[in-house]
Please model this.
Amino acid sequence: MEQDNGPVGSVFGSSDLMARVLLFNVDSDGPPSSYMMVCKRFREAFDCNAVWEKACEMRWRRKFGFSERWRRASEDFLKVQTVDGGSDCHDLKFWKCRYFHEEVTGQRETITPHELSDLSFDFRFFIGAPGVEDGSILIKSGLLESASKEVRFSSPTRSNRPLCLYEGDVKGHPTSEAGIKWFLREGNELQWGFPPNLWPRGVIRRLDNWGWEVVNPNVVLRAVDDHLDDEVMWSDLITSLELIPINNPNTNGFPVYAQLPSSFRNIRR
Model:
């Protein structure tokens, strides 16, 4: 049977001291749960705000939207501290609750129209400029260079278009033309263009870093975060580029290859 005044409790003396020990062992995956098995005081220290606040900061720094996520959480924490002195049991575990709340939120696959309109997107084509190399026509990847980093899906309003929930205006598109509209379906499909003629429908995806991506057979858009540089945001696609043969009857027999990411084969299906 566990004794609170056992060897561990005698050495550390208090949950506050144990919390300091835990702080040195927190990583981006959170505090080590094995400490909970040591004694009651370690379990108490495991739940304290100081430990989970550090866990939140370390975890979120590697994720999309860190600055805004940290600001909101810090403001909410100050609010609960000013209500009844922050004495409520839930308030004492604020950062632990927030950690797991953001884990769930960061994996949500559908986007709200207002979330969409608050973001700026880096717009890149799959297909870049063609050239000749070793007797073959080589189409370089368009993913290597941004066509626009200021694409916005703004002014969301309820849509009357069939199967669409919301619509709005597209700003910053590479064409620089006015009149481009966007249409959102069920929070995971987005289409844009000059009504009634729209470009291919895009699928909204959640990235591993909790950022947002919109991809159709022609282009990829990824939400911009100043905290993450381009190399980090696009490395998965750029490092997976491979030469894929393209059938093109207009090249007079010259072989044509395109630099495309390995995932492109699935996108085109």
User: Anything to note?
Assistant: The radius of gyration is 25 Å.
